[in-house]
Specification:
Blueprint: H1 3-24, H2 28-57, E1 59-61, E2 64-65, H3 67-116, H4 119-124, H5 127-169, H6 171-192, H7 196-218, H8 220-225, H9 229-255, H10 257-281, H11 287-328, E3 350-357, E4 366-373, E5 378-382, H12 389-396, E6 404-409, E7 412-413, H13 419-423, E8 426-429, E9 438-439, H14 440-444, H15 453-462, H16 466-470, E10 479-480, H17 489-503, E11 507-511, H18 519-533, E12 537-541, E13 553-558, E14 561-566, H19 568-574, H20 577-585
Parallel strand pairs: 5-12, 5-13, 8-11, 11-12
Antiparallel strand pairs: 1-2, 3-4, 3-6, 6-7, 9-10, 13-14
Helix pairs in contact: 1-11, 2-3, 2-5, 2-11, 3-5, 3-11, 5-6, 5-7, 5-11, 6-10, 6-11, 7-9, 7-11, 10-11, 15-17
Length: about 600
């Protein structure tokens, strides 16, 4: 790895760590209590070798043992061990509180950011990859953070404490230990600096795998229908192999830290033992003091092994945290202006003036788009696939902002009003249905939570959904899983139509709203729609041109432009592009 790359990774790590500390700051009371408990635990643990050394010194010779003094020392050790255990339990309790509270806050921030992300980000990132950041990466970060709190504080305090005790017993031997200590730190630092990018790659590949799994599960029927199992398996195996390789590489290099530091620490312990033995023979230190010192030397080197393991886990944790924080720091959609007005009682007029829009700068889509819709008009939008019909809907709902020009509702630019008030003025039924996990009732009242039972049933009857709902095990209180579960596509679409029937907003958007419904039911729904559209401005996107013959205005789109405009009769008389589309649907 190049020096410049390591420097960049180091800077990114440091920035991630600072942000993690910012989250931890909210729980500084628990942090302070954890440090205090770690200090008490370590201090008492380090005092035990002194007591052990004192007990050894009570063995004066063969048959000359001061049992009374030894018993008092053992009693004191028992009390100290009990207090140490209580302090460690409280420390772990505080650490758990900090870790799980921090990941709760991070997940909450990540989910809140998803709610306000621009559609451009959602459309350009696989859903599974976003899910992986919020779920898998946060879990990995949690494991590393918990281990860090549990072992890092205790390890650092142990190192400092043992040094103080060793200098108190024998400054010369302690000095030898301090001189050799940097070797262990250098080894751990050398390895850790090279593993961060490996854990980053591991985390990215895991997100790629999650995205593929979600994609294949969501489209399992299509996969099986087209015999795509082998190809999807090959793709999964390729990603899985890459995940295995980068995980093995990251784990292998990070696992070198512990044995390398153990080797250096073994050298330190051997040096202490030899030097201390020579001093004991010369009478420079008692045997009991030497026993205490060797115990301290062992305790002093042990945290280095633990901290090296913690550093490895923190490398992985910070790599995962960086991905989560990257999501949290994504630019949200442009917020409503400070003086944005609330669209109240819209009259249903919509005016589009010289609108230009494209999803990417290099690919032009809508140019010079103009439209003037009067109150209560039914506007049908037709055209070949990719001509910009759904894009017009995205612009009307302000899912995307226009690049140039303006869209006005009730004479006001939609950028001058709040998104919530604009979108609540539309009732939208899309070709792609969406239902959340919950009861049938909860899905229907999504846009009108205060609706009464009578209103819900009336809306369901108007949408011709009441009969099939009553046949369900618990009627309107039947629980359904994500995206409708076992309901048919037609039943799910009827529920989505019921949702709009209940709200009855002043403007409607119907994007192939009856595409999954049988012909007989469609005819009934079309009558319900006709009644619902009375006096309401309606935008109807349709591929079956027979369903929009009664529209007041038909916009014929081609390559992002309106090429023809009028009602069905006038457009058919022109024998232009609309007539070609219409006739092609009835050609033998």
């Amino acid at each position: 790895m190049s020096k410049e790359k390591r420097k960049k990774d180091g800077k990114k790590q440091w920035n991630t760590l600072k942000e993690v500390l910012h989250y931890i700051r909210s729980y500084r009371v628990y942090l302070i209590l954890s440090v205090l408990c770690a200090g008490i635990s370590v201090a008492l643990s380090l005092y035990n070798p002194i007591l052990i050394g004192n007990a050894v010194d009570q063995v004066l010779g063969a048959g000359a043992v001061n049992f009374q003094a030894v018993a008092q020392i053992l009693l004191k050790m028992g009390v100290l061990i009990g207090i140490t255990a209580a302090a460690q339990w409280l420390m772990n309790l505080c650490n758990n509180k900090i870790s799980y509270a921090v990941i709760r806050d991070m997940r909450q921030d990540a989910f809140e950011k998803i709610q306000i992300l621009p559609f451009q980000y959602i459309d350009s990132h696989p859903y599974g990859e976003v899910v992986s950041r919020v779920i898998a990466d946060v879990d990995q970060f949690s494991d590393g953070l918990l281990m860090g709190f549990t072992q890092l504080f205790s390890g650092v305090i142990t190192i400092v404490g043992t040094l103080l005790f060793m200098f108190a017993i024998s400054p010369y031997i302690a000095l030898a230990v301090v001189v050799l200590t940097p070797l262990s730190l250098l080894v751990a630092s050398f390895i850790a600096s090279r593993t961060y990018s490996m854990f980053q790659l591991q985390s990215r590949t895991r997100g790629e795998q999650t995205a593929l799994i979600e994609e294949m599960i969501g489209g399992q029927k299509v996969v099986k229908a087209f015999g795509y199992e082998k190809e999807s398996q090959k793709k999964f195996d390729e990603i899985n192999t890459r995940l295995r390789d980068c995980s093995l590489q990251a784990t292998f290099f990070s696992s070198l830290t512990n044995p390398c530091t153990r080797f250096v620490n073994a050298l330190v312990y051997a040096a202490v033992a030899i030097f201390g033995a020579v001093m004991a023979i010369g009478g420079g230190i008692s045997v009991g003091r030497l026993v205490s010192f060797l115990s301290y030397a062992n305790q002093y080197t042990k945290p280095f092994n633990e901290i090296s393991g913690v550093v490895t886990e923190l490398q992985n944790a910070l790599a995962c945290a960086a991905r989560v924080l990257e999501l949290i720091h994504q630019e949200p959609e442009i917020p409503d202006r400070e003086n944005a007005c609330v669209l109240a009682d819209p009259d249903g007029t919509v005016k589009v003036e010289d609108v230009w829009f494209s999803y990417t700068p290099e690919q032009k889509l809508i140019e010079h788009f103009n439209l003037d819709v009067k109150q209560g008009q039914r506007v049908a939008i037709v055209g070949p696939t990719g001509c910009g019909k759904s894009t017009v809907i995205n612009l009307l709902m302000r899912f995307y902002d226009v690049n140039c020009g303006s869209i006005q509702v009730s004479g006001k630019d939609i950028r001058e009003m709040t998104r919530k008030s604009l979108r609540s003025s539309y009732g939208m039924v899309l070709q792609e249905t969406w239902l959340k996990a919950g009861t049938i009732r909860e899905n229907i009242v999504m846009g009108k939570p205060e609706a009464t039972e009578e209103e819900i049933i009336a809306a369901a009857k108007a949408a011709h959904a009441h009969s099939f709902i009553k046949r369900l095990p618990r009627g309107y209180d039947t629980e359904i899983s994500e995206d409708g579960g076992s309901l048919s596509q037609g039943q799910k679409q009827l529920l989505c139509i019921t949702r709009v029937m209940l709200c009855l907003p002043p403007m409607l958007i119907l994007d192939e709203a009856t595409s999954s419904i049988d012909t007989r039911t469609e005819q009934r729904i079309q009558k319900a729609f006709a009644s619902m559209m009375q006096g309401r401005t309606s935008f109807i996107v349709a591929h079956r041109l027979s369903t929009i013959q009664e529209a007041d205005v038909i916009l014929v789109m081609r390559d992002g432009k309106i090429v023809e405009q009028g009602n069905h009769e006038s457009l058919m008389k022109r024998q232009g592009f609309y007539a070609q589309l219409y006739n092609s649907q009835f050609a033998l």
